[in-house]
C-alpha cells in the first residue's frame, strides 16, 4: 500500500519518533504549526475516522491515553494543547491514514479557518 504513514511505521521513511509501542507511534510533524507539533497514529492502517469501528476502536483509546501521558512528561499538560483529527476533504485530511495532531507551546486560535 502506498501510504506514507505506513512507511513511517515500518521505517521505510525516516521520522523523528517520540514514542512507539506494539500498537501506536508518535512522531514530530514534518511541518510544525506550533513549537510542539507531533502526530499519533495507529500502526495498523485505518484510512480515517470514518473507518473506526467496533473491531479497531480500542486503539483510539490507547492513542488518547498516550497523549495524556506525553502531555505530562513533556510538560505542556498545564499550559494546554489541542488534539486535531482531520477527516476527508472538508476536514483538510491530506494523509489517508488516521492520525491525531497534538499542538502545544503557544496560544492557539479558535475557531480554525
Ligand atoms: P493532515 O493534513 O492529513 O491532517 O495532516 C498530515 C500531516 O502530516 C501534515 O501536518 C504534514 O506536515 C505531515 N506529514 C506529511 N508527510 C510527512 C512525513 O513524511 N513525515 C512527517 N513527519 N510528517 C508528515
Ligand atoms: Zn497507512
TrEMBL record:
Protein name from the UniProt record: HIT family hydrolase
Molecular functions per Gene Ontology: hydrolase activity
Pfam families, A to Z: HIT (PF01230)
PROSITE patterns, sorted: HIT_1 (PS00892), HIT_2 (PS51084)
Residue ranges annotated for the HIT domain, each copy included: 4-113
Residues the record marks as active site: 99
Short motif Histidine triad motif, span: 97-101
Keyword field: Hydrolase
InterPro entries: Histidine_triad_CS, Histidine_triad_HIT, HIT-like, HIT-like_sf
Amino acid at each position: 500500500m502506498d501510504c506514507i504513514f505506513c512507511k513511517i511505521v515500518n521505517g521505510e521513511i525516516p521520522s523523528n519518533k517520540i514514542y512507539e509501542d506494539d500498537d501506536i507511534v508518535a512522531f514530530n510533524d514534518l511541518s510544525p504549526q506550533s513549537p510542539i507539533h507531533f502526530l499519533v497514529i495507529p500502526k495498523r492502517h485505518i484510512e480515517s475516522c470514518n473507518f473506526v469501528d467496533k473491531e479497531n476502536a480500542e486503539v483510539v483509546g490507547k492513542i488518547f491515553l498516550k497523549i495524556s501521558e506525553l502531555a505530562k512528561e513533556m510538560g505542556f499538560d498545564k499550559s494546554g494543547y489541542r488534539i486535531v483529527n482531520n477527516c476527508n476533504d472538508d476536514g483538510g485530511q491530506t494523509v489517508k491514514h488516521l492520525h491525531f495532531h497534538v499542538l502545544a507551546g503557544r496560544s492557539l486560535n479558535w475557531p480554525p479557518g
